[in-house]
Write a structure and sequence with these properties.
two-stranded antiparallel ribbon; globular; seven-stranded mixed sheet; disordered N terminus; Rossmann fold; alpha/beta
Length: 259
């Protein structure tokens, strides 16, 4: 059986663990108050400080246990936030977290949910399993190459450490661009494979050795800039995109211009 690529660890799953065991291990070590305070909250805050608008609808693609989407929902209570992942384990965990924080009467039927302009009209076809949900934060299982959303629905789309692991990278880019609103942006964050050793040592000098080793593995398993450029070109998005080096990260920004 072919080893599955893991967006969490950056390379291949451990031979001693099944895919589900690996996901459970990641959830137990990542979805903590310390990680939210030190990693996820600053990441979301940085994004919101870097953009010049307040997004009304956000898609966290490859959301994992749901921490980034959860943070967006906390700081933007008027925004509609969706977390999407192919893993049922990740989505079940994310939903369990928000379910525990809500009483049953806070739930609302999908068919009843409306905004000032009428029905939200988010889905091309409403998923059968999505019977009840928290109105402003939702998690669902979906394929990035075939998103179940209508055109032009998201002002902001985020991918953190997941793009390199998508099975169909070109079609996924096309789908993201399709559901992106006019004036909206896609932010893809991955680790920099081309970072000079001197710069890597400087940026990690205050980190624990185990953390540095983990980061080095993730960097080595990332894609080259040329590979990202090729995927953007195949998707027809080169003229709408910008690739930037940002510390340990490589940031790809894709914008959809206003008509």
């Amino acid at each position: 059986m072919r080893m599955q690529e893991d967006a969490v660890l950056g390379c291949k799953l451990s031979k001693s663990l099944s895919f589900s065991q690996d996901e459970e291990l990641y959830i137990s070590t990542s979805d903590t108050k310390i990680k939210m305070t030190e990693d996820y909250a600053p990441f979301v805050d940085k994004i919101l400080n870097d953009i010049s608008y307040i997004p009304r609808s956000i898609l966290d693609l490859g959301c994992g246990p749901g921490y980034i989407a959860r943070r967006f929902s906390e700081v933007l209570p008027d925004a509609m936030v969706f977390g999407v992942d192919k893993s049922s384990i990740m989505i079940n965990h994310a939903n369990n977290v928000i379910n525990k924080s809500l009483k049953k009467n806070n739930y609302i039927s999908c068919s009843e949910y409306e905004t000032e302009g009428g029905s939200f009209g988010m889905f091309e076809k409403e998923p059968d399993y999505l019977h009840y949900y928290e109105p402003r934060l939702q998690y669902m299982i979906a394929d990035s190459a075939k998103l179940p959303f209508c055109n032009l629905k998201f002002d902001l789309i985020i991918l953190k450490g997941t793009y390199k692991c998508l099975e169909n990278k070109v079609d996924s880019l096309k789908e993201m661009y399709r559901v992106l609103s006019h004036g909206g942006e896609i932010f893809i964050y991955e680790f920099r494979k081309d970072i000079p050793e001197e710069e890597f040592a400087l940026l990690t000098k205050h980190m624990k050795p185990q953390k540095v080793k983990s980061l080095r593995r993730k960097l080595n398993c990332s894609l080259d800039i040329e590979e990202y450029e090729n995927y953007l070109s195949e998707a027809g998005l080169t003229k709408f995109s910008l690739i930037e080096r940002d510390g340990l990260d490589l940031k790809i920004t894709i914008k959809k211009l206003h008509l």
